[in-house]
Design a protein that fits this description.
There is one protein chain. With about 230 residues, this protein is an all-alpha fold. About 70% of the residues lie in helices and about 0% in strands. It has a two-stranded antiparallel sheet with strand order 1-2. The radius of gyration is 24 Å and the shape is elongated.
């Protein structure tokens, strides 16, 4: 940690990380603005989110608080999902640099509501909404070939030879998998903005959920085989 709250300066040195420590500076300035008597309600509400996260209610930010903020800010930048379209090239660069340097994004990744506050520090609500809509449109275009393929007429010879139970199982498994993909794309449960930035563990979680109907069907077949 190279940020000094007394002088509000960041010391640049061989082992300093200006971009991550700038997060401590931004939050310190934010804290001071939120404490002003005429501070907007939205500003005070956002500070309350950060205050609850840090557990610093009623006291100044400590060195430990600033170290935690710096690490969280580094993870926020390393994820690479900017709050606005104009900032995306810079966030792509942060993602590339921190990934190459071996930063563990998950180790200090803050809660989604905290990253939402970080977003609002760097972009307006209108810019954030526009970016999310554009990202969703881009993901939807990627899914269009898959959705069209579901409605295409296929050779039903092999399919018709299968039992009704098998066809129902296969249909439910496919619809469930598509539903999980759409859920991840629309609701962003990992708060990554796009699965382009999902790590291996998050992909594994998504594919495991997608495969639940398949696992259930296999277990049911095994159960029937031994019972019958």
């Amino acid at each position: 940690m190279t940020y000094d709250p007394d002088t509000m300066t960041i010391t640049i040195g061989e082992y300093s990380d200006f971009m991550s420590d700038s997060g401590a500076f931004f939050i310190d300035v934010f804290r001071r603005e939120a404490a002003a008597p005429n501070a907007p309600e939205a500003l005070r509400n956002d500070w309350e989110i950060l205050e609850n996260w840090l557990g610093c209610a009623g006291r100044p930010l400590s060195t430990e608080d600033n170290t935690r903020i710096s690490a969280a800010w580094r993870s926020y930048l390393a994820i690479g999902v900017a709050p606005s379209r104009n900032l995306q090239p810079q966030f792509d660069l942060f993602h590339e640099q921190y990934t190459k340097s071996g930063v563990d994004i998950e180790a200090s990744k803050p809660p989604s509501e905290v990253m939402d506050v970080f977003d609002r520090l760097l972009a307006t609500d209108a810019e954030i909404r526009k970016k999310k809509k554009e990202d969703w449109d881009a993901e939807r275009k990627k899914l269009e070939p898959l959705l069209k393929g579901l409605g295409a007429k296929k050779n039903v010879g092999w399919w018709r030879r299968k039992s009704k139970a098998f066809r129902l199982w296969a249909f439910v498994s496919l619809i469930w998998a598509v539903g999980v993909v759409l859920f991840v794309a629309v609701f962003d449960p990992f708060h990554n903005g796009s699965w382009n930035y999902m790590d291996d563990d998050e992909f594994l979680e998504m594919f495991t959920v997608m495969a639940l109907p398949v696992f259930a069907g296999v277990l049911f077949r095994i159960y029937k085989k031994f019972v019958e």
